[in-house]
Design goal:
InterPro entries: Kinase-like_dom_sf, Prot_kinase_dom, Protein_kinase_ATP_BS, Ser/Thr_kinase_AS. Its EC number is 2.7.11.1. The protein is an alpha+beta fold. The chain has 3 domains: about 90 residues, Phosphorylase Kinase, domain 1; about 170 residues, Transferase(Phosphotransferase), domain 1; about 190 residues, no CATH class. Helix content is about 25%, strand content about 15%. The relative contact order is 0.09.
């Protein structure tokens, strides 16, 4: 594992006698921080008289080839140094001196995001979103240039008092990730912020940086590391198999974070859509329903569809329709993920394309499945095929463990902004194409998370059900048992057989 020392200092500057001079030009004045890969110094460029940060990188213990190490550092960091974005720490020079390599870069007088959260606790949502926007801008510039950062973490994100953000250490993780210079079993990057595909031994992708950014923003919003456990092995297991709950983040910020933390890189939210959500969340103001639980707008993983909020004691809500929508089927969640996305004229992730996805069907009056009822006994599976011309009555819902079945419900997503009951009731039908695109993207994303068991997924396909316009526009009664404005995701067998038991993880 590499730990990059923090490149920060306080705002005070003092005269220092040089401790030594590198390459006959850079005077090292004082140590600012150190980590597993070396030391960061406050330095002075004696040629032009400016203060700089100098990162001294030394060959890792146990490595054999100092020449390879120096060569890769020079090549990779110089490549990263060509990036031109306000949120990228500028690299001025890379030099080899003795048995060490020195990266000379812009001196940023600011704390890291890690220090900021340690000092202040969880940050306000709009502040987290603004930090995320700037880091995302830096990553997009890098990805366009074919550069993957590989070690995005709070310790590499510096936040100035005026809100300006700088992302540092481009190229360093890439440069040291070479079997000729890394010791056996060494992890390049910070395990708590390492994307699942990298844990699985795959090459780092642009999407891997997005996952790490999602973990960093989770830390900023929640004040806790999402996957950190007592051992490295437990941390890596959590990254592969768990999804952290959101207690403070909500609305578009929650959607951006959880979209970036989608396990499968191909189903992860694209940078452009993440940026749209972060822009929406960056505006100060409430993004959660009055009196609502922040969890109601977060993506949920890890079990069959679950309650978006646990009902507590007290009088029944004035509008029973929405309560039925949230609790229909006993444990069916309606998860709103569309703030700043779907109703801005495009689905959150855009149209999904997945080899495991079957044709999307419509339900409700005039649809492929004209008769659709949800059973109220907490059953998730149905004993009839989902196909055009079929009916799905309450009697078709069965307990997944009790008998073989043709499909299993694994997600419901509410297709309207979850800001108030009146918004749900007054939402205009967005059109079948948009509804299909959202449903397919949502079902695809959830299918590839740890909600569906890894050992079951190869034998499964999935499909989405969306309401017809007539179904969308009908006025639900107080005892209404259908989601009306929800899109539904079902698992079906990949072959002509039937399903046995449950293919999803149990409720924790």
């Amino acid at each position: 594992m590499t730990e990059n020392p923090e490149q920060h200092t306080d705002s005070s500057t003092r005269a220092h006698a040089p401790l030594r001079t590198v390459a006959g030009r850079y005077a090292l004045l004082e140590e600012l921080g150190r980590g597993g890969m070396g030391v960061v110094w406050r330095g002075e460029d004696t040629v032009i008289g400016r203060h700089v940060a100098v990162k001294e990188l030394r060959l890792p213990d146990g490595a054999e080839d100092a020449g390879v190490f120096s060569e890769r550092i020079l090549r990779e960091v110089r490549t990263g140094g060509r990036l031109n974005d306000p949120a990228v720490v500028t690299v001025f020079d890379v030099v080899a001196d003795g048995d060490a390599t020195f990266i000379v870069m812009e001196l940023v007088e600011a704390p890291t995001l890690s220090e900021l959260v340690d000092r202040r606790g969880p940050l306000p949502a709009h502040e987290v979103a603004r930090i995320g926007e700037q880091v995302l801008s830096a990553l997009e510039a890098a990805h366009r240039a074919g550069i993957v950062h590989r070690d995005v973490k709070p310790g590499n994100i510096m936040v100035a008092p005026n809100g300006r953000v700088k992302l540092t250490d481009f190229g360093i993780a890439q440069a040291v990730d070479d079997p000729r210079i890394t010791t056996s079993g060494m992890l390049v990057g910070s395990p708590a912020f390492m994307a699942p595909e990298r844990v699985a031994g795959q090459e780092a992708l642009a999407a891997s940086d997005l996952w790490s950014l999602g973990a960093a923003l989770y830390f900023a919003a929640e004040g806790a590391l999402p996957f950190q456990r007592s051992t490295t092995a437990a941390t890596l297991h959590a990254i592969m198999h768990e999804m952290p709950p959101l207690a403070r983040a909500h609305g578009p910020l929650a959607s951006a974070i959880m979209g970036m933390l989608t396990t499968a890189p191909e189903a992860r939210i694209p940078a452009g859509h993440a940026r749209g959500l972060l822009t929406a969340a960056a505006q100060p103001g409430p993004h959660t329903p009055p009196g609502g639980d922040a969890q109601a707008t977060a993506m949920h993983h890890g079990g069959p569809p679950t309650l978006a909020a646990t009902p507590g004691p007290g009088p029944a809500p004035a509008n029973r329709t929405r309560r039925k929508l949230l609790t229909a089927g006993g444990a069916v969640a309606a998860v709103a993920l569309l703030v700043g996305g779907f109703f801005a004229g495009k689905p959150l992730w855009g149209p999904a394309v997945d080899d495991a996805m079957d044709e999307t069907l419509t339900y409700g009056r005039g649809g492929d499945i004209a008769t659709y009822d949800i059973d109220g006994r907490s059953n998730y599976c149905v004993n009839t095929p989902l196909a055009s011309g079929r009916a799905l009555a309450s009697s078709n819902w069965v307990d997944c463990e009790d008998e073989a079945h043709d499909a299993q419900l694994f997600e419901i997503a509410l297709a309207v902004p979850e800001s108030s009951d009146s918004d749900v009731a007054a939402a205009t039908y967005p059109g079948e194409d948009r509804l299909r695109a959202f449903a397919e993207a949502k079902c695809t994303a959830t299918f590839h998370t740890n909600r569906v068991r890894d050992d079951e997924r190869p034998g499964l396909r999935f499909l989405a059900l969306v309401p017809t316009e007539d179904e969308w526009n009908q006025e639900p009664a107080d005892d209404f048992d259908s989601p009306v404005r929800g899109v539904l995701c079902f698992l079906v067998p990949a072959d002509s057989g039937r399903l046995e038991g449950t293919a999803t993880r149990g409720i924790a």
